[in-house]
Amino acid sequence: MSEKTIALVTGANKGIGYEIAAGLGAAGWTVGVGARDERRGAEAVARLRAGGVDAFAVPLDVTDDGSVRAAARLVEERAGRLDALVNNAGIADPGPQEPSALEPATVRRLLETNVIGVIRVTNAMLPLLRRSAHPRIVNQSSHVGSLALQTAPGVDLGGISGAYAPTKTYLNAVTVQYAKELAGTGILINNACPGYIATDLNGFTGTGTPAQGAATAIRLATLPDDGPTGQLFDDGGVVPW
Ligand code: NAP
């Protein structure tokens, strides 16, 4: 079994996920770089290794049961356990955002990646996380998933988001349920809000850098044993659900 701490980051070939991998790698972690496209994953691993990170490629499409099972086998062969799982992979949809204009197929597609994908990957990796002395799960959420912020007067979350924002609300809700189930196991599970970050997801309209967006997830992946669980954070602290 590997002595180095090992993390798996989904959707780590670019954007915020890449910077989470880089940050954990700089802190001395071995990092599994999850990517649904093998070529993009290999390129990211090469760049991370060139920067001194002990990275390895994990072909991983979060919407595919077989791919997720194969990824768990690969991590097991590589390290025998998993210390941190960062469920970062996510998609948005550029189409109309008004709920009245939503196509059911769009909602299903976003749910499949942003919610069911997280559940699928988490459940496949839990046996490996249970073998860690300090297991952590981080789900990449968003301020727009917070119903408290969505309904607070005067808070600007960028307008109506009929499909994407509710997927993050569902992700928040299911994280609370995981935290209840995993209480007392040592597994800490929390959600991160990266901020409004310039990536492909928003056509690079975000105002923060991917490295800034990675900071909260990195902090939650490296929490001490007495750290929080079942909460939502940004770089300023706790965010109301
Ligand atoms: P991004 O640059 O578009 O990166 C998204 C990553 O997810 C890519 O690596 C993408 O892979 C991967 N991905 C998508 N579908 C996948 C699937 N089925 N299986 C595996 N990987 C998949 O976007 P980002 O901004 O870094 O987003 C990362 C996370 O942060 C997402 O969960 C997003 O919702 C969240 N977030 C972002 C912002 C923001 O302002 N950017 C704000 C709040 C929350 P490909 O390269 O193959 O497409």
Topology (elements, then pairings):
Layout (H helix, E strand, L loop, with lengths): L5 E4 L5 H12 L3 E6 L2 H13 L3 E6 L5 H15 L4 E4 L16 H26 L6 E5 L6 H4 L13 H19 L5 E5 L17 H12 L10 E3 L2 E2 L3
Parallel strand pairs: 1-2, 1-4, 2-3, 4-5, 5-6, 6-7
Antiparallel strand pairs: 7-8
Helix pairs in contact: 1-7, 3-4, 4-6
The structure holds NADP nicotinamide-adenine-dinucleotide phosphate (NAP).
The site of NADP nicotinamide-adenine-dinucleotide phosphate has 30 residues, from helix 1 and helix 4.
Summarize the structure.
This protein has 241 residues and is of the alpha/beta class.
How would you characterize the overall build of this protein?
By secondary structure, the chain is of the alpha/beta class. It has a single domain, classed as Rossmann fold (3-Layer(aba) Sandwich), CATH 3.40.50.720. The chain is 42% helix and 15% strand. It has helices at residues 15-26, 38-50, 65-79, 104-129, 147-150, 164-182, 210-221, and strands at residues 6-9, 30-35, 54-59, 84-87, 136-140, 188-192, 232-234, 237-238. The chain has an eight-stranded mixed sheet with strand order 3-2-1-4-5-6-7-8, with helices on both faces. Strand 6, helix 7 and strand 7 form a beta-alpha-beta unit. Helix 4 packs parallel to helix 6 (164-182). The longest helix has 26 residues, at 104-129. It is globular, with a radius of gyration of 17 Å. The structure holds NADP nicotinamide-adenine-dinucleotide phosphate. The site of NADP nicotinamide-adenine-dinucleotide phosphate has 30 residues, from helix 1 and helix 4.
